[in-house]
Specification:
mainly alpha; 76 residues; 3 helices
């Protein structure tokens, strides 16, 4: 059981790191508009992801609820 908690800790840390990198990319994209060290437009990708969820109707709403639930659990 100890290794499960260890893996869970690693996955949680990687998820938090990924969210931090995405947030940094969005902020830098807004401030500088053209980021030479990021090969992708993070802001456009986030907007596209939200639009795809919104365009799926009930399925998108359920997916958004699952994402919200998953990240809300780690705050408590």
């Amino acid at each position: 059981m100890h290794w499960i908690n260890s893996v869970r800790g690693w996955v949680t840390s990687l998820a938090e790191l990924g969210i931090s990198i995405i947030a940094l990319g969005v902020v830098l994209g807004i401030l500088f508009d053209n980021i030479p060290f990021l090969p992708v437009d993070v802001t456009a990708n986030v907007i596209e992801f939200v639009n795809q969820l919104g365009g799926q109707g009930l399925v998108g709403l359920v997916a958004l609820g699952i994402i919200w639930w998953a990240f809300g659990r780690r705050a408590t």
